[in-house]
Amino acid sequence: MPELPETETIARDLHELIVGATIRDVIVWRPDVLREADAESFKHQLSGGRIVRVWRRAKLIVLDIDTSSGPCHVVVQPRFTGGLLVDADGTRPEDPADQPYVCVTFPLSDGRVLHYRDVRRLGTVALMSPMRFAEYSEGLGIEPLDPAFTDDAFSGCVRESRQAIKIALMDQRRLAGVGNIYANEALWRAGIDPSREACTLSDPELGQLRTELQQVLTASIAARGTSFRDYRDARGERGAFVEQLAAYGRAGLPCHRCGRRLVGTHAVDGRTTVFCPNCQR
């Protein structure tokens, strides 16, 4: 968390809000979140750069920056509690103790400020050249909302795997952007047991699962993601998809489909898995 819908929401917001702005300065409060650059080189390369695009790849938020030394990418992986927020009033903490979760601050030329904030500091902020990012991106799987993500493409991702289908869905080398929340939801919608080996699913089952996965991701993006505790969009607002969840977070409650009590377990992959033992086969 955040997963594809949440990072897509943040990226879309930032693209609307800050494209065209110049990064006036960079303040690194918590250098342990940086990757592929130290604080000095991060600040040196990005100061004066212009933001030309913000987009998403997998669970990453990517800022394309034009700098005096050429184009580069700021690649943010929020993981559990990270997020990018724009302060319209130009709030800039003079001491990190004033905002203890702010890790990196980007004052912009128009007076606003972009913050990378991370409660647990498990997320990362990397500085990559276009060549380095292309290499990194090639190691990620197909995007589930890409037109190329057909039944055949999905079958090719998971059909040979003897892993539990839930684990296969969350393997970023196979399929980019799906995490625990939406794996649970898609499997419940498709009526498939999360612990089944991926290679045992029939073509109709895989087709149904692909459809449900795409629909749940699309619905969550429309609701601006799922907020349980920490996730906020770029404006600091909560996502509303939590109200539509049928499985995740509902262990012990009645199944919306059959009324039987949903089961919560950590046995599949060490994370919370919620499923209906009656409906999901």
What topology does this entry show?
Layout: H1 4-18, E1 27-28, E2 34-35, H2 39-46, E3 50-57, E4 60-67, E5 70-77, E6 82-87, E7 102-107, E8 113-118, E9 124-128, H3 130-138, H4 151-158, H5 165-170, H6 180-190, H7 203-222, E10 263-265, E11 273-275
Parallel strand pairs: 2-9
Antiparallel strand pairs: 1-7, 3-4, 4-5, 5-9, 6-8, 7-8, 10-11
Helix pairs in contact: 1-7, 6-7
Task: Explain what the structure shows.
This protein has 7 helices and 11 strands. The chain has 281 residues and is of the alpha+beta class. A 5-stranded mixed β-sheet has the order 2-9-5-4-3, sandwiched between helices. Strand 4 and strand 5 (70-77) form a beta hairpin. The longest helix is centred in the last third of the chain and has 20 residues, at 203-222.
Features:
N-terminal domain of MutM-like DNA repair proteins; 281 residues; 4-stranded antiparallel β-sheet; Helicase, Ruva Protein, domain 3; 5-stranded mixed β-sheet; alpha+beta; 7 helices; 2 domains; 20% strand
Provide a compact summary of the structure:
It contains 7 helices and 11 strands.
